Amino acid sequence: MNCSGLALTEHQSAENIIEEIEKYADKESLSTISISSCQFSFKPANSCWILEQNVPNLEYLYINNNQIEKINSGAFYCLENLRHLELKNNQIKYIEESTFSDLPSLYTLDLSNNEITRLENGVFNGLDSLGNLILRNNKIESVENEVFCNLHNLSNLELTDNKIEELFVDQFDDLENLTYLILKHNKLQNLESGIFASLKRLRHLDVSHNLITSLAPNLLQNLTIDGCRANFSFNNIEEIHESALEGFNIRIGSLDLSHNNLKTIKTNTFCKVTAKKNFIV
Question: Mean pLDDT of successive 10-residue segments in the chain (281 residues)?
Fold first, then answer.
């Protein structure tokens, strides 16, 4: 532990954790708290364990490897300076609407390795500064159409290893600054025309290892891959519509269509793709 950090990792109860923080000599200087492998769970709604401890300058909060099943609205009240929040390797099934709305400075939110089954509208309300949202390895089956609404600063969205079957055509409309979108290892069967239309800064798209059967008209229209790739490998793609790749620009990178069921490719499929080098697989 350094002068600005407090690590609690010895299977302590919530009450013991509060006592440890209370004992800390200069709570206002605390920038990092790690609560890992403890018996920690959040208090009921409308109460907050950390508010009582007066840690106004906390920037990094790690609550990993615990037994949390639910996060109530208000759990992070009065943490205006928090920049990084990890809640990995818990048993979280449900997150209330506006749970994170008291975290205006939050840049990274990692909810990997939990049991979340549904992303409902409003769950990420108030996260105006959010840049990284990581939801790997959950059990997410459905994503409501406005769940990413107003996340204008988001640059990285990871939804790997879930059970998502469908996405709305306007799902990403507010994510104009998104550069990395990772949707691999889900159960997507279709991507509608225009679903990526708002992602003008997208550099890397990975929808590999899904169940996609075709690439819809104008699917990648006017998108630019610069230094990374658009990965559609390991799907069930049988057909690429003639306009699916119209205006698609590959500066440096690749379009990966390997390990699909393509039997024929129409003559004009790639004619309106701009590529500095032949990186189309």
Answer: 53 62 70 82 59 76 91 85 96 92 96 97 96 98 96 98 97 97 98 94 96 96 86 96 91 90 86 68 55
- The pLDDT value recorded for residue 190 is 96
Query: Is this structure's pTM higher than 0.85?
Result: yes
- The DSSP string of the chain is --TTEEEE-S--BHHHHHHHHHH-TTGGG--EEEE-SSB--PPSTT--TTGGG--TT--EEE--SS---EE-TTTTTT-TT--EEE--SS---EE-TTTTTT-TT--EEE--SS---EE-TTTTTT-TT--EEE--SS---EE-TTTTTT-TT--EEE--SS------TTTTTT-TT--EEE--SS------TTTTTT-TT--EEE--SS---EEPTTTTTT-EEEEEEEE--SS---EE-TTTTTT-EEEEEEEE--SS------TTTTTT-EESS--B-
Q: Could you identify the residue written with the tokens 């459905």?
A: 142
Give the amino acid at 261.
N
221 closest CA partner among 201, 251, 237, 244: 244
Query: What pLDDT, on a 0 to 100 scale, did the predictor assign at position 225?
Result: 85
Determine the Cα–Cα distance for residues 140 and 161; give it in Å rounded to an integer: 9
Cα–Cα distance measured from residue 167 to residue 91, given in angstroms and rounded to the nearest whole number: 25
Pair type for strands 224-231 and 214-215: unpaired
- Buried-state track 179-203, b at ≥16 Cβ within 10 A, e below 16: bbbbbbbbebeebebebbbbbeebb
Strand partners, 255: 230, 280
Please tell me the distance from the alpha carbon of residue 21 to that of residue 239, in angstroms, as a whole number.
59
Predicted pLDDT of residue 118: 96
